[in-house]
TrEMBL record:
It comes from Oryzias melastigma. This is Sjogren syndrome nuclear autoantigen 1. Residues 50-91 form a coiled coil. The keyword Coiled coil applies. Keywords: Coiled coil. InterPro entries: SSNA1_fam (IPR033362). The keyword Ligase does not apply.
Amino acid sequence: MNDKPPAKGSQRASSDHSGYGAQHLPAHSVALRSSTKAEDYGPAAALYGIEDLYSKREELNRQIKLEEEEKERLQHDIQILSEKLSKVEKSLAQRLAARATFDRTIGETEAAYTKILESSQSLLSVLKQEAGNLSRATEPRRKDH
């Protein structure tokens, strides 16, 4: 049986690593999977270790790809949300300015109304006073005998 790994560049070119996998290892090396010391069993155990590393690397690559896709989606969402936030901030600023204008106009109108009301009351008071004076001036005088 041949326990040597394949020569560099021979059957290991494919990404599925089936070129020299478990199906090509000697039958006695199946028990090596539970071994923790590759040197106890020679090159066959080392091949299992290498295959295990390739398998773990491929799983890591799959996870990396998923996270990169999620990162891209999140960045896209952030861009969309940033644009929406910008629009809302602009609209809010315009509405706040409009409210401030309303507040100022209301304040000025109330102040003017108060002045008009005070003037009207003052004018009414003057009119009543003058009406009383005129009434007294036009009444026939009584003679007290």
